Each structure stands twice: as C-alpha cells, then as structure tokens.
Amino acid sequence: MKKINNQPLFEEYLSINKIAGYFSSDMKEWMELYLFSKNEYLCREGAEMDYLYFFVDGRAKVYTTLSNGKSLLLSFYEGFKVLGDVELFQIRGAASSVQAIDDTYCIGIYLPPVREKLLRDPVFLTFMGFSLSDKLNKLSKNSSINLYYPLEHRLSSYILATGVKKESIHFKENLTYLSEMLGTSYRHLLRTLDMLCKRGIIRKRENTYEVMNESELRSLARDIYR
C-alpha cells in the first residue's frame, strides 16, 4: 500500500463516485488516496483491518480460505466498491482476502479516530445498509455459481477477469492454485482448458494461454462472479 499525494486525482475519484454524499458532514480531511500494486493484498482474511476503503479504480479478486486450507473464489471487484464495511461493525479480522489483479486505487479512511462518529451518522449508516445488502445478494448468487455452474463458465469468467489485455488477452496462473480457487480438481481443470483449446476459444503458448475468440469466451462467462 502506497499513499498517493495527487490532489487532482483524489478530487476526481471523490467527484466521480459522489463519495462526499455518503456522509452527513465533511469527511475529506480523514481521507487519503492509496495505491495497491498488482498482486498486493488490500486485506487478508483474519488480519486486523483499521481502514474503510472505497475501491475506485482497478481490479481485484475476493476469496475465502476453507477449513481444509484451500481457497475459494467469492467475487471480483471492478468499479466502485466498499471494503471494510463488515469489519466496521464487527471489530475483528477481515472476513475475506482481497488481492489486486491490476494496480488499484482506493480512498481510505483510518477508522480508530472516526469509528464512533461514523456509527452515529444516519446518512453513512443508510449507505452502509445498501452496501451490505448488495454484498449479501452477490454472495448468495456467487455461492450458487460455485455449486451449479459448469467449470467452463466459471473458468471463462476467471480468465476474462484476471487476464492481461494486450493485442489479445493473455492468461497465466498456477493451475493447482486455480483448481482450488474454482472448487474443482486439477485433472478436471486441465480437461476443461483442453476443451476450450480444441474449440478454438483459447490456445496454449508455452506456459501461457492466449484468448483466440473473446466473444465466445464472454458468452461462456456470462458475467458470473460479478
């Protein structure tokens, strides 16, 4: 995490996302702009979280760790999101891990000096209610996706969400880790990747996969995990 002293950029993110309107009083003096580099964690499951973050630019994946030590994908973040809303009300470790896929910008509020002020702010609490309701709905939907969607759909969504866009999308991931993240076996993941290759949707180039038919891949992905 790196603090960014760029006032025009800070003001732009505040304005675009209408963040000032989520509070009864001016909270700008408590806000800072932060940059999380690619692959850096915005928070780790179980770790203390002292910040409320407004996710304003970039991409990140959200996952939880199961009792057997494996990880399971919950969702992707892209566009405006709130991090730390659950932890604001329950002072304990982060409920899940959030890891940046690209360089990601957040506006952060350090909570210890303002927590009680926020918990007495009716405008902010109303906003938090909508935020938590939206997260609950998406968590319910994504839990069903992990149970019932075929792997080819979940994998397609993951490739689009995490791939690097050049002239085409390039995808590189540790496949053992990926099979855990998608709740499948390593062999089933390999069979599904091979099937996508045979259909001409992706192709393998050494240890990287290149997307050859992006429209077909997006059709399979169906905006799941969003």
UniProtKB/TrEMBL annotation:
Residue ranges of every copy of the Cyclic nucleotide-binding domain listed in the record: 31-109
Tagged with keyword Transcription: yes
Keywords assigned: Activator, DNA-binding, Transcription, Transcription regulation
A molecular function (GO) term: DNA binding
GO annotation terms (biological process): regulation of DNA-templated transcription
InterPro entries: cNMP-bd_dom, cNMP-bd_dom_sf, HTH_CRP, RmlC-like_jellyroll, WH_DNA-bd_sf
Domain of life from the UniProt record: Bacteria
Record's protein name: Cyclic nucleotide-binding domain-containing protein
Native source organism of the sequence: Metabacillus idriensis
Lineage: Bacteria, Bacillati, Bacillota, Bacilli, Bacillales
